[in-house]
Design brief:
Number of domains: 1
Oligomer: single chain
CATH architecture: Orthogonal Bundle
Strand order of the largest sheet: 1-2
Number of helices: 7
Strand content: 5-15%
Helix content: 40-55%
CATH topology: Lysozyme
Distance between the termini: 63 Å
Order of helices and strands: HEEHHHEEHHH
Shape: globular
Largest sheet: 2 strands, antiparallel
CATH class: Mainly Alpha
Structural class: mainly alpha
Length: about 200
């Protein structure tokens, strides 16, 4: 019996020492090439319900349809928890991130163009937007960006009127986001509506 247990214990110890680096795969090709890097710096604004990923992972999507397939479930989860219509979250993600392939998104996993603001003490990246060299939040995994988007909208008083709207009234949500100052683009509501 001892002779059987010893190899099992050694195997168990060996397996537990192997790095458990989280990887995500591109759906672009069937070879499943993972893109990760080890980066363990923590972010600000942690929530108990959502643990941060330990490694930086990029998920490549090559079309709007693929973006919807990859992030649709996450947007629905966020809608159930925070009350933001999944259609609005996905439309904003598609528009702000270039369906996940924008230059800023590829460097930061920031799918919603959320800037640092004074309360942010996590990782960030400088990027030219409305002004030169603006500070944008950086996340280890796209799912963190979706959660931060939900927290961002639900915790700021300027967006409070949105949560009085029906979830299925995406046109009112799109117009309300612009009115509350989410984006400077005057055609922002029309762009979101066209994606939906």
């Amino acid at each position: 019996m001892r002779k059987l247990l010893l190899p099992l214990v050694v195997l168990f110890l060996f397996q537990s020492c192997i790095s458990k680096k989280k990887t995500t795969y591109s759906k672009k090709d069937s070879n499943k090439v993972a893109e990760t890097s080890t980066k363990n710096k923590s972010h600000g604004e942690k929530t108990e319900a959502f643990k941060k990923a330990a490694t930086f992972a990029i998920i490549r999507t090559t079309s709007v349809e693929e973006y919807l397939n990859v992030y649709g479930v996450i947007a629905q989860e966020e809608m159930k928890k925070y009350g933001i219509p999944a259609s609005i979250t996905l439309a904003q993600g598609i528009l702000e991130s270039g369906y996940g392939m924008g230059k800023l998104t590829m460097k930061t996993n920031n799918h919603f163009g959320i800037k640092c603001h004074t309360s942010w003490d996590g990782d960030f990246e400088r990027h030219d937007d409305d002004e030169k060299d603006e500070c944008f939040r950086k996340y280890n995994h796209p799912k963190e960006s979706f959660r931060d988007h939900s927290i961002f909208l639900s915790s700021r008083s300027r967006y409070a009127s949105l949560f009085e709207l029906r979830r299925d009234d995406y046109k009112a949500w799109a117009k309300g986001l612009k009115k509350a100052g989410y984006a400077t683009d005057t055609k922002y509501p029309q762009k979101l509506i066209s994606f939906i």
